[in-house]
Inverse folding.
């Protein structure tokens, strides 16, 4: 497989190049956010993008305007609703994979967050903590927002109506169903996310810590391999992992709830 990398001169671009080469793939084009976007599409099988919103937008518009049939894997964060709409337009032309976090463990945790939000009603307040290095520009992170959207979906709520990103000065009493966000930007922290369900008598917290950006690069390369087998359309980590995880979860819960007298 031949891969083009958008954002090739950035830290994540470097990790993507390393991960692809380790898998035996060729790096066909290395394009920075300031280079000509057209260079991405020369003799390549897939494009992996870890750049910035402006460069991602240029790539998406180029696909739409030139009907370029090259699958896209987008890991850029800080994207707006406008970018999402552009990705959906591209998805009518090519397969488009987008995820704010390419970690397989994050996909597992996101599923656990959904289950917890379903099992625990709104008597349990939800707070999401997002910790990243001091150079990260978007806040809250795409991963933190993803967790919040997962909670809202599980509870049948509209995310924009229950998300609270700002607490300052004299604030109103917490509203039922509110999802609170707290952000820390410090030192060289790769990424840490914590989702807390806080009840009157007990709490539960789900936490993930990334120790290297390599996990995101490896996930993106695996997504590139997978998307080559998919028809045009818009894909997320849920699509990528469901073939593996759905049978696993069914088997897991079947085993868990099966009563075995010899083990009691």
């Amino acid at each position: 497989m031949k891969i083009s990398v958008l954002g090739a001169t950035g830290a994540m671009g470097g990790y993507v190049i390393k991960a692809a080469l380790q898998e035996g793939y060729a790096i066909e084009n290395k394009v920075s956010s300031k280079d000509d976007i057209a260079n991405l599409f020369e003799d390549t099988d897939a494009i992996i993008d870890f750049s910035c919103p402006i460069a991602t937008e240029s790539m998406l518009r180029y696909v739409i305007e030139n009907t370029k049939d090259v699958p896209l894997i987008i890991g850029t964060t800080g994207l707006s609703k406008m970018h999402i709409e552009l990705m959906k337009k591209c998805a009518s032309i090519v397969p488009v994979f987008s995820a704010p976090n390419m970690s397989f463990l994050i996909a597992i945790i996101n599923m656990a967050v959904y289950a917890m939000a379903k099992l625990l009603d709104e008597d349990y307040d939800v707070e999401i903590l997002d910790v990243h290095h001091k150079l990260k520009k978007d806040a809250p992170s795409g991963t933190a927002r993803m967790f919040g959207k997962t909670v809202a979906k599980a509870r049948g709520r509209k995310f924009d109506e229950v998300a609270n990103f700002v607490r300052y000065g004299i604030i109103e009493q917490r509203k039922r169903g509110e999802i609170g966000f707290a952000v820390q930007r410090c030192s060289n922290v790769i990424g840490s996310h914590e989702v807390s369900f806080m009840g009157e008598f007990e709490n539960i917290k789900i936490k993930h810590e990334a120790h290297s950006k390599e996990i995101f690069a490896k996930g993106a390369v695996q997504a590139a391999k997978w998307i080559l087998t998919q028809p045009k359309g818009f894909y997320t980590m849920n699509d990528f992992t469901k073939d593996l995880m759905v049978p696993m979860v069914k088997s897991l819960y079947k085993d868990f709830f099966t009563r075995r007298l010899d083990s009691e």
User: Anything to note?
Assistant: The first strand starts at residue 2 and ends at 6. The domain at 2-102+214-237 is CATH 3.40.50.720 (Rossmann fold). Helices lie at 11-22, 53-66, 81-90, 104-119, 142-154, 159-162, 214-227, 237-257.
